[in-house]
Design goal:
Elements (H helix, E strand, L loop, with lengths): L1 E5 L18 E4 L2 H10 L6 E5 L2 H11 L8 E3 L3
Parallel strand pairs: 2-4
Antiparallel strand pairs: 1-2, 1-3
Length: 78
């Protein structure tokens, strides 16, 4: 799985779900799919795909300001 994060601060693309906090992190099944999404939105300068693993989840949690065990993942498209 791959999340897409801002290059500047590592904050991920999230989706709003009523009653769920923090907002779920959107993930793609492959790096290619994540890159294609970035490119389709003209966001290559601002965003990058990141493989979801223990290290990246820790970094995402820090960027979001929440404990890692509170992060939920939402596949794209959902």
């Amino acid at each position: 799985m791959y999340a897409i994060v801002y290059k500047a601060d590592g904050f991920p693309i999230c989706v709003q779900v009523a009653g769920v906090e923090p907002d779920p992190v959107v993930v793609w099944t492959t790096e290619g799919a994540a890159k294609s999404f970035i490119d389709s939105k003209g966001g290559a300068e601002e965003f990058q795909p990141v493989a979801v693993d223990d290290g990246s989840l820790d970094a995402i949690a820090k960027a979001m300001g929440c404990p890692v065990d509170q992060i939920t993942l939402e596949p794209y498209p959902s």
